[in-house]
Design goal:
Layout lengths: L4 E10 L6 E11 L4 E5 L6 H8 L7 E6 L2 E2 L5 H7 E4 L13 H11 L5 H11 L16 H13 L5 E5 L7 H18 L2 E5 L3 H7 L2 E6 L2 E7 L11 H15 L2
Parallel strand pairs: 3-8, 3-9, 6-7, 7-8
Antiparallel strand pairs: 1-2, 1-4, 4-5, 9-10
Helix pairs in contact: 3-4, 4-5, 5-6
Length: 253
């Protein structure tokens, strides 16, 4: 099942009174079924906050987030978890140090009452390219890339339609980054996932995304196709500067 994602006038305020800070003034964009959509911009621009709101990890926002035309607020929690999963930036912090990979993967299956747990866990590991004997390993026995593969397997095991990816490779070595990006590309091709990917790296966007939004101070300045990157076809000054800096960096490597 492939589904769309619509975000309309998403706004969130942290704090109260004179100290209140509006982090997202009103973000809007849409993602087609099966599309990989990127969110780029400098640190603090609100990219990860958009994902946390969409996943209902932060719930005091206003506006609308719809998955397949349905408001995320109206989707019951268990159903929402089956529909939408998130992969976090830090593969070292997102896994419990005292839980084996088997425990990490078995927990969502138990919560959702899904049968054939062993077969589902084995398939999830195979999907992310890990040997089956990794089920009995603990996080400290895994490399950073292997931990992130386990985190992706945990997201996949409930067979969601949408994956929210919060800089899933930024904490990894460059060679491992490429492996994870290729893995995500393959999984989308095979399973028809809809991705929203937060990244600060336009090379990742160029590799993964169909379109991307450039964010500045919590606002979407411009939405562009991936094809706009090589010739820097952005029209907003900040978006043009961001793409130019990326092209200069990539050209000088």
């Amino acid at each position: 099942m492939t589904v769309s994602v619509e975000i309309e006038n998403l706004s969130i305020v942290f704090g109260t009174g004179p100290d209140a800070v509006r982090v997202l003034p009103g973000v809007s964009f849409s993602v087609a079924p099966g599309e990989c959509f990127g969110l780029v911009g400098e640190s603090g621009s609100g990219k990860s906050t958009v994902l946390r709101c969409a996943a209902m990890l932060t719930d005091f926002w206003t506006g609308h987030v719809r998955i397949g035309g349905r408001s995320v607020r109206a989707i019951p929690l268990k159903e929402r978890c089956r529909l939408l999963q998130m992969v976090f930036q830090d593969p070292y912090g997102s896994l419990h140090p005292r839980q084996s990979v088997r425990s990490v993967l078995a927990e969502p299956l138990r919560i959702h009452g899904l049968k054939d747990a062993e077969a589902r866990m084995q398939r999830a590991l195979t999907d992310v390219g890990l040997p089956l004997d990794f089920l009995d390993r603990f996080p400290h026995q895994l490399s950073g890339g292997q931990r992130q593969r386990v985190a992706i397997a945990r997201a996949l095991i409930l067979e969601p339609a949408v994956l929210l990816l919060d800089e899933p490779t930024s904490a990894l070595d460059v060679s491992v980054q490429a492996e994870i990006l290729n893995l995500l590309t393959r999984l989308r091709a095979e399973r028809g996932f809809t991705y929203i990917m937060v990244t600060h790296d336009l090379a990742v966007v160029d590799h993964m995304c169909d379109r991307f939004a450039v964010m500045l101070h919590g606002e979407v300045t411009e939405v562009l196709p991936r094809s706009a990157i090589p010739g820097n076809e952005a029209t907003h000054p900040y978006a043009r500067e961001l793409i130019a800096a990326s092209l200069e960096y990539e050209g000088g490597r």
